[in-house]
Amino acid sequence: MSWVDAGQGGGRVRVGLVGRVLLGAGVPTVVAVTAFATMLGAIDGARRAQERVSASHQTVVAAEGLSRAVGDLTASERGLLLGDLGGAGAWSAAGQRVHERAEALAALRVDGADERRRTAGLAAAAEAYLQESRRVAGPVAAGAPARTGLPATDPARVTEFAAHLDAFLAEEQDVVAAQERAVAADARWAVAAGVAGLLASLVSVVLVGIYLTRAVALPVRRAGAVARQFADGDLRARLPVTGVGDIGDLQRALNRMAASLAAARDELTASRARIVAADYRARRAIERDLHDGLQQRLVALALDVRGLGAEVPDELREQVDEVATGLVEATNELRDFVHGIQPAALTQSGLGAALRALARRAALPVEVRIDLADRLPADVESAAYYFVSEALTNATKHAHASYVEVTARIEAGLLRVTVADDGVGGADRAGGTGLVGLADRIDATGGRMTLVSEAGQGTTLTASIPISWQAGTGGTG
Fold this sequence. Notes:
Blueprint: E1 4-6, E2 13-15, H1 17-81, H2 88-107, H3 113-141, H4 155-231, H5 246-309, H6 314-341, H7 344-349, H8 351-361, E3 366-371, H9 378-397, E4 404-411, E5 414-421, H10 435-444, E6 448-452, E7 459-466
Parallel strand pairs: 3-4
Antiparallel strand pairs: 1-2, 4-5, 5-7, 6-7
């Protein structure tokens, strides 16, 4: 299944488990990337504004250098015009500096048409001033007599340059101030974007964590808990279907599995109960048939043969007595066989009497502790009796025990029968000692058998049988 597919409604889109995980990972990533990109944009804006500030500072420095060069040119020109012929070299050097500074100013890379226009205007004003100075002082520098008292360079040129310079510096200061404000604003925006992105990322991570916990982690954890209940045998547990997509499918699948397992277990228990019921009915039928039929017939034949003993000749009387004795012994053997199928004490006197009789016939000492006030259903008593009988056989043959304790009591609607010996321990259901069949017999009653058998510490078998169970019902009522 893809992580997004069409739902049952046709127009619905179902997001699967993988899609939810990707969505949960993607939301914080998108938030963080957006915040980071915003912060980078603000930082880049601050960088560009700072570059413009630096460029403006360079322009101001160049303009001030040009202004100083113009001042030097004016001073050397006046000295030259006043007859200081030795100042011709200084005037020429000052003029060269004005020209170089004007070209350097014009060559600066500045942003914006207005700033380029101002820079070009200031450089052009300086060049115009230089040309005027060369016109006035050039002949004097070349050897012509100075014209004392005449004005130097046209004052209009000086005024024009000064006006250009003042306007340029004022506007550049405004530009620098504006760019510095832009730098500060961009820096504040970058910090705000970073903080907002961090907070948004944290909030989105928390929200996505809560979402994934509620949508994925908690349903999976509940599914695991219910699965453990299934493993422990509680197939009545059900998982509430609260999830969507794959989680909902998992919850419904677990519930269907539990229902199927419960139905299979009920059917297995019912089939086992039917087998036990058939065995029980067969035992009772054989007991009645043998007791009421063959056993009574043998007793009657023994009495008839003994009655004939007085009428036969003496030489046949011994043979007749042997026949009578054989009939009595056969009757006793049949009675013991019948008791093995269904003890008379169990049918007539109940479980307590039957267990005490079983203990007396055991090959090792057996202590019986019975706490039963009333008779129990015959099926329950029969199941408990044969459980104790098989457990005593195991204790005698396999456990090498010297003492066995049998207890029976009612607890919470269950007959709990315990057989504990002091044998070698280490018993295992897979060890071929009949424990599997014994457990199956108890399971068929809807009950449960437990085994505790540590090596060297004896063996304890406990059967818990519902006292409301009746053979043929398939379990408890």
